[in-house]
Amino acid sequence: MVEHHQVRVYRSDENLPRTGQLAWKIAEVAADPVGVDEDVTDMVINRIIDNASVAVASLNRAPIIAARAQAGSHPVSANGRGAAVFGIDEKSSPEWAAWANGVAVRELDYHDTFLAADYSHPGDNIPAILAVAQHTGTSGADLLRGIATGYEIQVDLVKAICLHKHKIDHVAHLGPSAAAGIGTLLGLDVETIFQAVGQALHTTTATRQSRKSEISTWKAHAPAFAGKMAIEAVDRAMRGQTSPTPIYEGEDGVIAWMLDGPDARYEVPLPAAGEAKRAILDTYTKEHSAEYQAQAWIDLARRLHGSHPEVTDPEQVSSIRIHTSHHTHYVIGSGANDPQKYDPTASRETLDHSIPYIFTVALQDGAWHHVDSYTPERAGRPDTVELWRKVTTVEDAEWTRRYHSLDISEKAFGGRVEITLNDGTVVTDEIAVADAHPLGARPFAREQYIAKLRTLAAGVVDDAEVERFLDVVQRLPQLAPGELDQLNLTAAAGVLTAEAPKGLF
């Protein structure tokens, strides 16, 4: 059973009690000692595999090299075992391991997603929760419960509270969810989790400029920062330190001044006491390394590449118009009014958020690759640039409605494309969800998650190391306290050769 909590702004003289605050309700869910359902357990394992896949694929990218170097400058802290860092044998203090691993997971924009009132990558919870689990020597069963909570809280917040329309970055939902997940992992009481959730939210609200115009390397760092802040918030709360209260509902709080304002009303769904946390099953991963709204469009472009090869030739195409949802049009489409989305010299992070670019390359190549599709040479190919600049997007009310639908069977992230040729012929096609989506043509299951890891780890991690990791992670519920250190992948000899950049530490 789900309970819907009414959330609004309160004047200071209304004195909203803690027990009525959203942060307290989140803490109650986190402290509820419910078990983890078998299908949820299977999906948690899938997502740990998924995170490892995309992390190892990014180990030699500059943001990961820098973040790993920062973690390496912070040795294991007192009162714990430390936490593992992807790619290396050395451990670090848990908040810095979470930082390095969070950047590695997020860099390629290639792991799981959930989209509703707002956007999210719930797998960003895992690096922080796992780092604390390794540092404190907890069991596989404890980790499962913690991750299930992290997903539950993030998905429930994303269903109810829109951040992006106020240009607040979606990691503002990640700080509280990671703090709640860590609270579950450690078996903390409601009061402590409540304080940690408030501190985590307070320190992780930021604008969406990190996802606008020339998108920088901070896009990968933002969720890692939220995870790091969540760990530090839990540490402070465990030491008896308190947070701004009420953090959501206060007259100078997040809702009043950063979101819908003093008259705001939200209805946040949370599991009732004793109810299992199952929200991870509403989420979906990526087959392709690109922003989630691009997933279905890559699949449609691949299909058109085979069925209508003439649409790949700019000499034959007059225009390509993509009819899609409000989000796709205004965030990654031409509605964003970002010239960089049509710039062949733009950064990878920017091209990753350009549906005109992504659709064009997938249309011409009939494929998508996490490295090759973003190279400067690929982006700058003259026939690609010519075709790319003929692609525009437009919001379609029906696709926007389906995007926001609460009915999973009709919720859609695609749209319809109209390609007009110079001879007047119009080629049309449409797609609702990506092929890898649970309702798509080829839904991802354990077999696909494992294949993704083996593909992305090739040439980076020895085969034997991959198989060792897969054996361990698939025994997650049985792992004893202290065995979670094995949930790491070490790069093959000679792979990590780049010199780490120098900083303060």
UniProtKB/TrEMBL annotation:
<comment type="similarity">
    <text>Belongs to the PrpD family.</text>
</comment>
<feature type="domain" description="MmgE/PrpD N-terminal">
    <location>
        <begin position="21"/>
        <end position="266"/>
    </location>
</feature>
<dbReference type="GO" id="GO:0047547">
    <property type="term" value="F:2-methylcitrate dehydratase activity"/>
</dbReference>
<dbReference type="InterPro" id="IPR045337">
    <property type="entry name" value="MmgE_PrpD_C"/>
</dbReference>
<feature type="domain" description="MmgE/PrpD C-terminal">
    <location>
        <begin position="288"/>
        <end position="476"/>
    </location>
</feature>
<comment type="subunit">
    <text>Monomer.</text>
</comment>
<keyword id="KW-0456">Lyase</keyword>
<dbReference type="InterPro" id="IPR042183">
    <property type="entry name" value="MmgE/PrpD_sf_1"/>
</dbReference>
<dbReference type="Pfam" id="PF19305">
    <property type="entry name" value="MmgE_PrpD_C"/>
</dbReference>
<dbReference type="InterPro" id="IPR045336">
    <property type="entry name" value="MmgE_PrpD_N"/>
</dbReference>
<dbReference type="InterPro" id="IPR036148">
    <property type="entry name" value="MmgE/PrpD_sf"/>
</dbReference>
<dbReference type="InterPro" id="IPR005656">
    <property type="entry name" value="MmgE_PrpD"/>
</dbReference>
<dbReference type="InterPro" id="IPR042188">
    <property type="entry name" value="MmgE/PrpD_sf_2"/>
</dbReference>
<protein>
    <recommendedName>
        <fullName>2-methylcitrate dehydratase</fullName>
        <ecNumber>4.2.1.79</ecNumber>
    </recommendedName>
</protein>
<dbReference type="Pfam" id="PF03972">
    <property type="entry name" value="MmgE_PrpD_N"/>
</dbReference>
